[in-house]
């Protein structure tokens, strides 16, 4: 793809992103979100894409739905997909969201009673170049509460892997401890969370849609058996296993 078409695409996507952002809802909108023990929450979803190593076009799109608080699998959807949109930094959602949204729509059509009440997305929400990452994109298009959970720090809006940042990580002493991800503007765009006592590497949680940051962090911690919340971990494990089974001679990557 030449520079000019990509520039046109960036303009188009920037405009679409800004339009979708107008529909973003920050804050707790459901009764279960306000309950201390999340009473009323029964189904949590997770989505992920896994790729064949060296192939950035064909991927395994995975949706899982787990019971809450047991975190047992009650539904899964596994599909090989071909991604037609190019990868452009800051616009990952335009590449990945369509197939994830299709998985949710299939579930809505076939078994609507199993539709998740909240979705964990392997990526960022408000913690993004223009405060509208993949978790926001999927949340707005699906209308469902979404939480972005990233394993690695996106160095954006003045948040960097500085000495101060590393010092803050060192101050996270136990599972549930957090510190804010504060943009240069002073706005808190997410939180770093030590998800378990055993894991010293934090995860980065941000609002996707229809949930507050504090609730998103609290629920993420409640869904962590290991470093990564179980809905995302299960989606990742199952998509990788599918690729290993279907393409045993090649490596996979998340």
UniProtKB/TrEMBL annotation:
It is found in: Cytoplasm, Stress granule; Nucleus, Nucleolus. Monomer. Interacts with PABPC1; the interaction is RNA-dependent and stimulates ENDOV activity. Belongs to the endonuclease V family. HAMAP family: Endonuclease_5 (MF_00801). Endoribonuclease that specifically cleaves inosine-containing RNAs: cleaves RNA at the second phosphodiester bond 3' to inosine. Active against both single-stranded and double-stranded RNAs. Has strong preference for single-stranded RNAs (ssRNAs) toward double-stranded RNAs (dsRNAs). Cleaves mRNAs and tRNAs containing inosine. Also able to cleave structure-specific dsRNA substrates containing the specific sites 5'-IIUI-3' and 5'-UIUU-3'. The keyword Magnesium applies. Signal peptide: none annotated. It comes from the Eukaryota. Keywords: Cytoplasm, DNA-binding, Endonuclease, Hydrolase, Magnesium, Metal-binding, Nuclease, Nucleus, RNA-binding. GO terms for cellular component: cytoplasmic stress granule; nucleolus. Its cofactor is Mg(2+). This is Endonuclease V. Pfam families: Endonuclease_5.
């Amino acid at each position: 793809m030449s520079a000019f078409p990509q520039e046109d695409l960036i303009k188009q996507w920037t405009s679409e992103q800004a339009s979708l952002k107008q529909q973003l809802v920050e804050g707790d909108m459901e009764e279960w979100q306000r309950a201390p023990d999340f009473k009323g929450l029964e189904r949590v979803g997770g989505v992920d894409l896994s790729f064949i190593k060296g192939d950035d076009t064909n991927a395994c799109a995975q949706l899982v739905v787990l019971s809450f608080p047991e975190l047992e699998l009650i539904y899964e959807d596994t599909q090989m997909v071909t991604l037609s949109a190019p990868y452009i930094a800051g616009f990952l959602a335009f590449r990945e969201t369509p197939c994830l949204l299709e998985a949710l729509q299939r579930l809505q059509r076939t078994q609507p009673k199993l539709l998740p009440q909240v979705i964990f997305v392997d990526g960022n929400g408000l913690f993004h170049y223009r405060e509208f990452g993949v978790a926001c994109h999927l949340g707005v298009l699906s209308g469902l509460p979404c939480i972005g959970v990233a394993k690695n720090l996106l160095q954006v809006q003045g948040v960097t892997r500085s000495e101060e940042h590393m010092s803050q990580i060192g101050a996270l002493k136990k599972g549930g401890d957090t510190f804010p991800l504060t943009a240069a503007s002073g706005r808190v765009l997410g939180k770093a969370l030590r998800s378990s006592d055993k894991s010293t590497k934090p995860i980065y949680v941000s609002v996707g849609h229809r949930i507050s940051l504090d609730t998103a962090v609290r629920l993420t911690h409640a869904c962590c058996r290991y470093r990564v919340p179980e809905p995302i971990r299960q989606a990742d494990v199952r998509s990788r296993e599918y690729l290993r089974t279907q393409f045993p001679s090649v490596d996979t990557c998340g």
